[in-house]
Amino acid sequence: MSGTAPARLVDEVLEATVVGSFSRIGPMVRSRTARWDPPERLDGRTVLVTGATSGIGLAAAVGLARAGATVRFTARGRERADRAVSHVVEAAPGADVDYLLADLSDLDQVRRLAESFTAGHDRLDVLVHNAGALTRSYRTAPDGSEVTVATQLLAPFLLTGLLLPALEAAGSARVLQVSSGGMYTQRFDLDALEMPPDAYDGTVAYARVKRAQLVLLHEWARRLVGRGVTVNAMHPGWADTPGIRSGLPGFSRVMGPLLRSEEEGADTLVWLASSPEGASTTGRFWLDRRPRWEHKVPWTRLDHGSFVAAGSALWAWCAERTGWDGLRPAGREAATPSR
Ligand SMILES: NC(=O)c1ccc[n+]([C@@H]2O[C@H](COP(=O)([O-])OP(=O)(O)OC[C@H]3O[C@@H](n4cnc5c(N)ncnc54)[C@H](OP(=O)(O)O)[C@@H]3O)[C@@H](O)[C@H]2O)c1
Question: Domains (ranges, CATH) in the chain?
Answer without folding.
Answer: 1-36 (no CATH), 43-322 (3.40.50.720)
